[in-house]
Specification:
12 helices; four-stranded mixed β-sheet; alpha+beta; about 300 residues; disordered N terminus; 8 strands; globular
Length: about 300
């Protein structure tokens, strides 16, 4: 869901970033539907050249308003305030510049600002984390949110430029590095869209694909939140992330490389754990579990949709 960073969200829209985006082989950061709003905005402007041009200028302008040295195309996302308008959380306006807090541990930052949503606080620096106005604790329909993210990614001209139809794409190997440095190879029978390559390895490293987690719990919001709480604890117990790692700055720094074939399981897991600390892990887990699955009876065969059972 984009950001529904969903995972590695490179939901850049507008001609100024299209060429760069086409070079990305992964994407999305899942959680919350924010990029969904962005894609809907662009779609609504498709036949209005003047408005589309204005929207593209917003994208271009935003590149200069993030960290100047960031070159990854995900940072070309418009500021959420440009398409979601004014929002606040815990009495604080969303989308403010908090550069001074980028390399502080996320729990420390949020403790210093009680009641403020993590996405709201940091969305200026990581625009794929746009705060939709609904906190995870108030989410009553994780499944619909996950489906909205899946559909939006599939309808994106950048994320899925030539959609062949559900489970009609070519078979592909998807690789990343395991904790011991060995290559983990997944076999996806149908990679219909560009973003699948990055999302599958990210979700698999987290252990959040369908059949890695119990997707039946997704329709029970409290049970799903409880499961995600345990999953987030498991990630930290497994990797024992340091204070230096659990910062928004680290999340940004890793964005450029972790979705490549040499991306490491620890860093992919850390990317998702940041979402846990920011208060949106359950939404990210829902996106992962709904998008793809480990096919029943296999350890590395990836499926999508009805074949997941």
């Amino acid at each position: 869901m984009i950001g529904h960073g969903m995972l590695f969200v490179v939901m850049l829209v507008g001609g100024v970033v299209a060429t760069e985006l086409e070079r990305e082989d992964s994407c999305s950061d899942a959680t919350g539907g924010l990029p969904v709003n962005l894609l809907q905005t662009r779609a609504s402007l498709k036949h209005d050249s003047s408005e589309l041009k204005r929207f593209s200028l917003v994208v271009a302008r935003t590149v200069d308003q993030q960290r100047p040295n960031d070159t990854n195309s995900a940072f070309g996302l418009p500021k959420p305030s440009e398409y979601l308008g004014y929002r606040e959380s815990g009495g604080m306006e969303c989308g403010l510049n908090h550069t001074a807090d980028l390399y502080k541990p996320i729990p420390q930052v949020l403790a210093e600002h009680p009641g403020v949503d993590g996405y709201c606080y940091f969305e200026f620096h990581a625009p794929w984390m746009a705060y939709s106005g609904v906190r995870q604790r108030d989410n009553t329909d994780f499944l619909s949110g996950a489906e909205s993210g899946r559909v939006s990614m599939r309808s994106s001209e950048i994320m899925c430029p030539s959609d062949p139809g559900m489970n009609k794409g070519p078979a592909r190997e998807i690789k990343y590095l395991g904790d011991n440095g060995s290559t983990i190879t997944l076999f996806d029978r149908h990679v219909d869209c560009n973003h699948i390559m990055g999302d599958v390895k990210y979700c698999h490293a987290l252990g959040w694909l369908g059949n890695q987690v119990d997707t039946a719990l997704m329709t029970d919001p409290d049970a799903w939140r409880s499961l995600n709480e345990r999953e987030c604890e498991r990630l930290n117990e497994t990797y024992k992330f340091t204070d230096e790692e659990i910062t928004l700055g680290k999340h940004i720094d890793d964005q450029e490389w972790i979705f490549a074939d040499y991306g490491r399981a620890r860093n992919l897991a850390l990317h998702g754990y940041h979402k846990c600390l920011l208060g949106h892990g359950a939404e990210e887990m829902a996106y992962c579990a709904h998008l793809s699955c480990l096919l029943p009876g296999t350890s590395n065969q990836i499926g999508h949709g009805d074949v997941c059972g």
